[in-house]
């Protein structure tokens, strides 16, 4: 016998969270374009390779924010015959593409840095350009933290990746600008293309980690140990009347967590009593974690394996 929350999947996915994510992604496009315009102006004022690297990296963000917006819209569609588990995994595809664009930007920055190094570095109006870039970077960091927090709140991998990218961009920009100021004051302008190359290497690493995390989602990788332990504790606390739960499997698709396990109950327990336990477990999981679809296979006590989750 199985008791499943699949029939309530549409209710499990909070519409308010999807709307909030969509608004955040739409706003991110506008903010990203504004930040890019400021950083592009800073590069045009100075002609430096390091500021070019900063501007090019920021150009990726409006494009990826637009992809995030499209992914959130598609992920909000209810389950259908062709996609009975919903459309949440589209967010992982968006995050993979974002990581790929970041990697591409890293190679373009490296190419520009090499060209600048061969042609002889120069910086015009360095302080004005650096100040303009710093203002844009501060705006980037603040908005990146906002996106990351919103992605955490609504459990959106695409928004989290977007926010992580912006925050890493801000940290990179801070180090870059500090080093560039040092180069200007010391007169060592040959450091300009080297700083651009260092930024490219860092961006390459960030892109790699974003791609790897997104591929884990596409491959149904298990969640982190803390999430698994929280689920086990909820089951142990709320399955009163059952004996044990074993063979727990968990995966995520965007904002929805899918889990399944076997619940061992006393042999004399009625179907209605076992179903009530399953409903209680599902309700506790949704209350604690948000969008959860649980499939519970109920078994008699002779099926007990004496491992897994012991009901408290």
Describe this structure in words.
The protein has two domains: 15-218, Alpha-lytic protease prodomain-like (Up-down Bundle), CATH 1.20.1510; 225-310, Cation efflux protein, cytoplasmic domain (Alpha-Beta Plaits), CATH 3.30.70. The chain is elongated, with a radius of gyration of 25 Å. α3 (49-75) packs antiparallel against α6. It is α+β, with helices and mostly antiparallel strands and 312 residues long. It has helices at 9-12, 15-46, 49-75, 90-119, 126-154, 157-186, 191-218, 225-238, 271-289, and strands at 2-4, 244-253, 256-265, 292-300, 309-310.
Short characterization:
The chain is α+β, with helices and mostly antiparallel strands and 312 residues long. The protein is built from nine helices and five strands. The chain folds into two domains: 15-218, Up-down Bundle (Alpha-lytic protease prodomain-like), CATH 1.20.1510.10; 225-310, Cation efflux protein, cytoplasmic domain (Alpha-Beta Plaits).
